[in-house]
Amino acid sequence: MVGPEIVVSTQSLPSLWRDGDFLRYWGSRAVTMIGSSVTAVALPVLIYHLTGSPALTSGLRATSTLSMAAFGLVGGVLGDRFDRRRIMITADLVSALAIASLVAAHLAGVLTVPHVYAADFASASAAVLFDGSSAGALPTLVGRPRLPEANARIWGTQGVLDVVMPALAGLALAIWSPASLLVIDVLSFVGSALLVRAIRGALNERRARTVRTTARDLWADLVEGVTFLRRHPTLWPLAMVAVFGAGSAAALLGLIVPWADRVLGVGTSGWRFGMLFGSWAAGAFFASFLMPRLSRRYGAIRLAQCLFPAMTVLLLVLSRLDRYGGALAVYLAHATLHVLVISATVTYRMQIVPERLLSRVSTASRTLSWGGGATIGVLVSGQLASHFGVRAALLAVAVANGCAALLAWVPALRRAAPTARYAETA
């Protein structure tokens, strides 16, 4: 549990845009977002062109969710135990090498579907380790009182880039091959590593050094983080909500390419295809402006209880639409509400978990939601789309989101305080 509430006025703190270390951290995230936005469009199209299979196209997203299942808890333990800066730099370089191998194979004319899956899994696994350290680094870097502002600015930047870049990628796909566009992602990972290296401030709190870290120490760290999450009166039920919420969101994102091609009739390139990919990010951009104010006024838990039912209705409507304009508008509205809830609950978790446990608890929660729920979501939806059609798969996405809506009203969350209570650690 946390200590007594400490109220700190953010008005007395310097602007984050004048904080050099935050700008470097923000810059590392921004350049990675540019590359990842392009790859998020290029890789599914590449698989779809190679196979024509909705199941294999949707299944590509499972590489990232499985990587979370495999390395999520490990990433949290490493981030809390070792130098977060070194872990983040190493992870960026591994991701760069993995994606670069696809470019090289394409140029040599030997690119295969297993290679795409393997490289994507390697890059996603490195990203999981990066995130395990990043989750603890940001609160240490900016302080807990400025977390809502810092997260809003990072997610706002992601929203802008993820709107612009997929649209540009969609246009570029009409000229260049999907594999050629991956060069952008390679350069972005290298740029991120250089910016993280340039951060001057500490990304870990000062702690007493131990002589040696054993496997037993690492296992004890892992158990401590999972136990904290499991026993917390609000974080654990929120994690269960996130399992179904992440499963629904990942399944929807995995269906975009066959949905665009087979239901909406916009193909797999061009500005309309790019806008469809970018509309999820546009929702994230809108949510970044709404989240700090709504989170302070209503709290993350209340937002989840109100917005998950609304998202379920939107998904049911989406499963019946076949016109591009209406589908784009509903998809954008759903994305805005989903990212709003997720960003509010992530910030809530960051504010109430002790710093020494931040990486472990954050990655334990993401392992459950993205490693478990999202993996099941993309695999099931892909099979449904292949055997019963994309519309049936979208209906299943709505059902999964409805389960999250019901779980948001369990007694523990109904009784929970509306906003997070947090204390700065010494």
Automatic annotation (TrEMBL):
GO terms for cellular component: plasma membrane. InterPro entries: MFS_trans_sf, TM_effector. This is MFS transporter. SUPFAM superfamilies: MFS general substrate transporter (SSF103473). The keyword Acetylation does not apply. Keywords: Cell membrane, Membrane, Transmembrane, Transmembrane helix, Transport. The keyword Transport applies. It is found in: Cell membrane. The chain crosses the membrane at residues 30-50, 62-79, 91-109, 181-199, 235-259, 271-291, 303-321, 327-348, 368-386, 392-412. PANTHER family: INTEGRAL MEMBRANE EFFLUX PROTEIN-RELATED, MAJOR FACILITATOR SUPERFAMILY ASSOCIATED DOMAIN-CONTAINING PROTEIN. It is a multi-pass membrane protein. It comes from the Bacteria. Pfam families: MFS_3.
